[in-house]
Write a structure and sequence with these properties.
The chain has ten helices and 16 strands. It is an alpha/beta fold and about 350 residues long. Helix 3 packs antiparallel against helix 4. It is globular. The structure holds 5-S-methyl-1-O-phosphono-5-thio-D-ribulose (MRU).
Amino acid sequence: MEILETVRWREGKVRILDQTLLPEREVYSDLETVEEIIQAIATLAVRGAPAIGVAGAYGVALAAAEIAARCEPGLPPEPADFAESLARRAELIAKARPTAVNLQWACDRVMKAVREAGAGVSSARVALTEADRILAEDLALSRRMASHGATLLPEKGRVVSHCNTGGLATGGGGTALSLVFEAVAQGKEIFVHVDETRPLLQGARLTAWELARAGIPYAVQCDGAAAWLMKTHRIDAVLVGADRIAANGDTANKIGTLHLALAAREYGVPFYVVAPSSSFDGSLASGDLIPIEERPEHEVLSWAGRSVTPAGARAWNPAFDVTPARLITAWVSEEGVERRT
Ligand code: MRU
């Protein structure tokens, strides 16, 4: 499995592969401030639940370094002031996108490490060490999800993918798409039907880019074609990721996932959610409580920078939906495959 360098710490900056420019251009940007991190997350230059978690963690490390650099030379910061200033910045980063729980989880985890170490001169190092750990764990979790989940795929078959759940959506390994990479590495023949994923085309732009690099056969389809695909072809699985999974298994993921799950149920296609434990939010009893991000209208009203609607048209642009647990065949995490009971 190719590991993509989606988010990395490089010489005091956070280097991201700018996903808004793919597939035309592969550009890495160095983010130097908390504001730039927030902007990159909000504009989806870095995106996908685990990837924004990693970016958020490095954002808090960057904030810690910024605060430490502002302290008077020779004078250590007051631990209480340091923790308070850092917590304020961490909260701003965590709020950059509301649905993926991974972002809040990662920021909280770095803050906890700093507090436990007694916030002070060494906090920037503590924060960076914790962020590095989150990235390393994310890479390891992708490998484990891939090996558990690949067993669900046949020797030769077809799957439907929604949004982008490959290396780009994580620290580099992937969630749902990593099952396909692993199955193919094991010698299985898998064809991927890629939902384009309106309005920002994560499927057409990003999943297709990853599959092409890996030499895996695929075809992109309009999101609205997926139900017809399941009616007219033998499809072995729908594979999706998750931005947040509530205690009862209800799963928030990219808008359009609920349609897929309903169609999969109608046509008897197994529907798998693949996500690391950092995407599980046991504090929410059900999916009704998951905050759903609403994004700007212009993302729906225009295409490739050109307006496609009459002047004055309005749009509704929820970025995610919630699939009820009863429509999900199984959840694949680093722990294994958990079937609906
Ligand atoms: O708006 P995005 O592109 O960040 O949405 C991403 C998704 O919905 C993914 O399917 C999800 O984060 C899980 S895959 C890692």
